[in-house]
């Protein structure tokens, strides 16, 4: 087993401010960035704050920025860096720092609560639901999400624009709206809920200019832009410019 000493710069601080601190840490074969952060805690910085749980890329807790790129620390192998490189680890930039590498990701839970959940179809009990395999596959792709919020962190709409946060749900939750809007058994429209309209009016779909940065950082490989955001945009536009939909909404408004 070979080992070497790597140079790290780790952000330390809290809501009042902070900066990068230099460390030299031992690295062994097969290790990931989270191993090194744990070694730092064990040997040099016992009060270094870091959030993690599974160390298997499944809980979504260990999100941080490594050399400026949003990544899971437990899934970033040290072997992707050269031994000479200085590796910078900083907290997610789009969310407020609590301490060191830990951020307050509450924004995402607020946005999650703003998306109305699946509306069960009337007259069908769970177990009687039948769907085409392609509809099942679509939902299953979106359901692979581990809520690491790397896509939320990287999206330029909120990354440096705190002012956009109230009006923009972010890719993870627009994907949830898309999933429900394309779900063949969702009965939201029968209750008067137009998910395409809420995507535009309440969740900020129009802010997304399909740069695909969210897709690029997703550790689950979910095609957020191609399979959720672009179809949702197409459906929202169809709704807006479909003359029958327009006429129907006029008649409904007049009769109510
Ligand atoms: S594709 Fe849309 S949601 Fe994804 S990063 Fe770009 S602007 Fe944000
Ligand atoms: S969609 Fe991907 S990047 Fe976004 S929160 Fe889910 S797993 Fe993370
Ligand atoms: S510790 Fe669970 S995803 Fe990294």
From TrEMBL:
Keywords, comma-separated and alphabetical: 2Fe-2S, 4Fe-4S, Iron, Iron-sulfur, Metal-binding, Oxidoreductase
Pathway: Carbohydrate metabolism; tricarboxylic acid cycle
SUPFAM superfamilies given in the database record: 2Fe-2S ferredoxin-like, alpha-helical ferredoxin
GO cellular component: plasma membrane
GO BP terms: respiratory electron transport chain; tricarboxylic acid cycle
InterPro entries: 2Fe-2S_ferredoxin-like_sf (IPR036010), 2Fe-2S_ferredoxin-type (IPR001041), 2Fe2S_fd_BS (IPR006058), 4Fe4S_Fe-S-bd (IPR017896), Beta-grasp_dom_sf (IPR012675), Helical_ferredxn (IPR009051), SDH/FRD_Iron-Sulfur (IPR050573), Succ_DH/fum_Rdtase_Fe-S (IPR004489)
Positions of the 2Fe-2S ferredoxin-type domain: 6-93
Pfam families cross-referenced by the UniProt entry: Fer2_3, Fer4_8
GO molecular function, one term: electron transfer activity
Cofactor: [3Fe-4S] cluster; [2Fe-2S] cluster; [4Fe-4S] cluster
PROSITE patterns: 2FE2S_FER_1, 2FE2S_FER_2
PANTHER family: SUCCINATE DEHYDROGENASE [UBIQUINONE] IRON-SULFUR SUBUNIT, MITOCHONDRIAL (PTHR11921:SF29), SUCCINATE DEHYDROGENASE IRON-SULFUR PROTEIN (PTHR11921)
Family statement: Belongs to the succinate dehydrogenase/fumarate reductase iron-sulfur protein family.
Annotated protein name in UniProt: Fumarate reductase
Protein's organism: Streptomyces regalis
């Amino acid at each position: 087993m070979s080992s070497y000493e790597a140079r790290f710069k780790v952000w330390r601080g809290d809501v009042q401010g902070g900066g990068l601190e230099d460390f030299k840490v031992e690295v062994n074969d097969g290790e990931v960035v989270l191993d090194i952060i744990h070694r730092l805690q064990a040997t040099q910085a016992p009060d270094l704050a870091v959030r993690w749980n599974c160390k298997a890329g499944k809980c979504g807790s260990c999100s941080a920025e490594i050399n400026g790129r949003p990544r899971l620390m437990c899934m970033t192998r040290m072997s992707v860096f050269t031994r000479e490189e200085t590796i910078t680890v900083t907290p997610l930039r789009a969310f407020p720092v609590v301490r060191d590498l830990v951020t307050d990701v509450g924004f995402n839970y607020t946005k999650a609560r703003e998306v109305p959940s699946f509306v069960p179809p009337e007259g069908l009990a769970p177990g009687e639901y039948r769907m085409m395999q392609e509809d099942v596959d679509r939902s299953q792709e979106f359901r692979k999400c581990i809520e690491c919020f790397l896509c939320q962190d990287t999206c330029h709409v909120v990354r440096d624009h705190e002012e956009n946060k109230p009006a923009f749900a972010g890719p993870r939750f627009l994907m949830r709206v898309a999933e429900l809007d394309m779900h063949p058994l969702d009965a939201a429209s029968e209750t008067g809920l137009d998910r395409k309209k809420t995507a535009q009016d309440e969740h900020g779909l129009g802010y997304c200019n399909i740069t695909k940065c969210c897709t690029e950082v997703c550790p689950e490989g979910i095609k957020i832009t191609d399979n959720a955001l672009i179809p949702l945009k197409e459906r929202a536009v169809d709704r807006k410019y479909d003359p029958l939909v327009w006429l129907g909404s006029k008649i409904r408004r007049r009769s109510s």
